[in-house]
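agent> fetching stored inputs for the pantoate docking request
agent> found them:
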Amino acid sequence: MKQIQKAADLQQAVHEAKDKGLEIGLVPTMGALHEGHLSLIERALKENDLVVVSLFVNPIQFNNKEDLEKYPRTIDADLELIKNLELRIKNEAKASALLAFTPTVNEMYPDGEPKEVYHFGPIEEVMEGPRRPGHFSGVAVVVRRLFDLAQPHRAYFGEKDYQQIAVIRNLLEQIKYPIELVPCPIVRADDGLALSSRNMRLSPAARQMAPAINATLEQAAEMAEYEEVDDVKEWVLDTLASYHEINDSPNGLKFEPEYFEIVDAITLQPIADWDEAGELGAVGCIAVWLDGVRLIDIVKF
Ligand code: PAF
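agent> prediction call returned; pasting tokens
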């Protein structure tokens, strides 16, 4: 692994790789790496000749200053995790090099806050979109910049941020870059909690309760065999909202569901009937507050 901080150095390395006809895989991250990120990096190492992992907390995708300030920054530990992964899968990797790109905000945005704005139509009018104004445009700006610098053949994104994948798919259609988008499955803790950098902020009591989100979604997937869409939606929201009344919730903690939507897997538009989902089926996407931490998760139907 080689750490690169300057955009020009990354461009130079990419240029040399392209001259040799090497295939490049990009894994964009905001650092605070966990097994979920490592699974993306591992896949990229197995499918490409050169892998670029970016670690950059992108200020323009945060619409809440406190959230940006609280975002965990663990760069030394992150680089160590990447090195260990490289060692661990050395014999299975196709890639002969990994570049960890760790730019400063100035390096990414030398002209100050970017003016460009992206729109994604109906995809951003649901779920995270209205609740986090400007978020997806901020994601698109940084991802496009990373695409321009790394010029990848493939780009790897985790399915936990399901709506983000739809946004990137749409971005690629808008900018017409021939990059293969590779969505990767969620990695979960043994108790089912979806791994997330935000889990670090859960108190021990909240961490103990959080797996109920996935357990509820799994039950919802079973209910979908015989219940209507609206009934499944209502059941998930009620089950989590009343969890503390029925279970021994540690420290009296409560789930506060923000939304649970059942949408078409590609268009992300809410469906009223299971038959309305297209060929990739339906996905349930949830955002829940627990002890001051906002958790998201998905279930495929
Ligand atoms: O998913 C994330 O961690 C971020 O949104 C991304 C794609 C790295 C852009 O900053």
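agent> quick read of the result: Residues 28-30, 58, 61, 139, 142-143, 161, 164 surround pantoate (CB under 6 Å).
agent> awaiting further instructions
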